[in-house]
C-alpha cells in the first residue's frame, strides 16, 4: 500500500491526516485533497489524477458505453470523461482478445491441415512434422498466455464494477446473488478453448460478459481486499468492515491493487509481442505426396513459410529509403537512383520488432514517420537516426496507409474504415470512424489529400482526408485476399495512374481520368504480396 496511508489503515493521508480521495493513474499513488495539489504541480500529472466521485460515476457508466462502442466514432463522451482510462482499457482488451482469437483460429486451422497431411507417413514423418509446426505452436502458446492474462484482468475490472454497483443496490439483491454460488461452475473448470469459443460467438464486450456472468465473471467478492481465504465468499457488508464501512476506500484499494497486479500486462513490450504475432502472415501450401518418391517429395509436398513483414519504401529526391522486411530488421537501405548503388545503415537503439513496419510517410522536410503496430517512430534522413515519436498512439493494431499533410499525420486502419489524425507538434490525436465495414488490402495517396483504398471484397474508393468524402470507383475484376502494394504515378496534368502490384496473383493499372483498369505484367512468376513498390525514372 502507498506510504501515504496511515498505519491504522483508516484510509487517511499520513502527512495531512485527511481522507484519501484521489488516485494518480500514471504513478499509482493515493492522494488526499492537500497532497494532490502538490502532486499535480510537481509532477504535471493533472490529466492522470481522478477523484473518487468521478471514478464511481465512470464505473457506473463504463459498461453501457462499451456495449455501444461499435456504433460510435470513438469520440470522448460525457459518460466516459470522468474516468475514461478503464473504459479505454476495456475496449483495448476486447479488441486484442477478439483479434487474438481470430488469429488463433487461423493458426489452428493450418495446424490441422498439416497434421492430416502427415497421418499416412506416421512415425517416419513425426520429427519432420514437429519441425514444421514449431512456429505455430510457439505462437499459439503466446496467444493463450496473453488471452489468459487479459481474461484475468478483465475479470478483475468487471468485479470492481460489480462491487461498486452492488453497494448501490439493495442488500436483499446482493444476498440472493451470493447464495447461488454453490451451484455455479467456477472459472477454474472453464477452459481457454471454451472462452475463445464464447469470444467468437459474441460481437460486443457487453454480450460476452452477460453470456458468462455466472461463470467467468461471477463475483466472489474476494479479490485482494485484505481477505486471506481464497475459497470463501463474503458479502459486501463483510468486506466493508475492513474499511470501516467506507465504500470509497474499498474502491480505491481495489484500483490500487489492480494497477499493481495488471499494469505490466498492458506495457509496450507485451503489446508489441502480440502485435508482432498478429502481423505475421503464414503461407501454407500442401500438395499430395507420392510414396514411390517419398524421400524426394517429402521436401516438396508441404511448404510452410512465414512471410516477411512488409517492407516500406519512400522516394525522396534521388534516393529511395527502404525499411523493414524480415531479412533487414533494424536497418535502413538507401538506394541511389543516379548512381544505382545502395547502402545499408544499422539503426541503433531500436528493439528487435523494428522490422514489423506497417507503413511509412515523409513530412517533406527531414523526417520519415514509421508506423509500427500502435506506435510511431521518426527517422531523420539527415542524421540517419531513428527515435520513438509516440508509443501506443493508435486505437488500432495495424495500418494500411499513412499520409502527412500540413503538420498532421493521417493514418488509416487495415481492418476497419477508421482514421487517426495526429497533430505532430502537440502529439494530440483525434479519431474518425466510418459506419461502413471494410478490410483493406492496398492503399496509396495522390499527394493531394486523397487516399485510394482497395478492399479484400473488391471495393475500390477514393477518400478525402479533410472532407471525409468517399467516392466509389471501378474495381479490379480479379479479387485478392493478400496485402498488395499500390502506387500512384502522375504522367502529366491529363494522365495519372494507380498501379496495383500482385506478382503471380495478377497486377493491374488504373486510369484515374478514365476510371478504368487494365491488367499488366503478364508472366510475373513471383509472389509479390507484402512487398513494397515505388516508381522512378533513370536518366539515360
Automatic annotation (TrEMBL):
Q: Which SUPFAM superfamilies match?
A: B-box zinc-binding domain, Galactose oxidase, central domain
Is Glycosyltransferase there in the keyword field?
Answer: no
Q: What is the lineage of its organism?
A: Eukaryota, Amoebozoa, Evosea, Eumycetozoa, Dictyostelia
**Organism encoding this protein:** Heterostelium pallidum (strain ATCC 26659 / Pp 5 / PN500)
InterPro entries per the UniProt record, alphabetical: Gal_Oxase/kelch_b-propeller, Hemopexin-like_dom_sf, Znf_B-box
The protein depicted here goes by the name B box-type domain-containing protein
UniProt keyword terms in alphabetical order: Coiled coil, Metal-binding, Zinc, Zinc-finger
Task: Name the coiled-coil region(s).
Answer: 137-164
Keyword Calcium in the entry? The reply is no
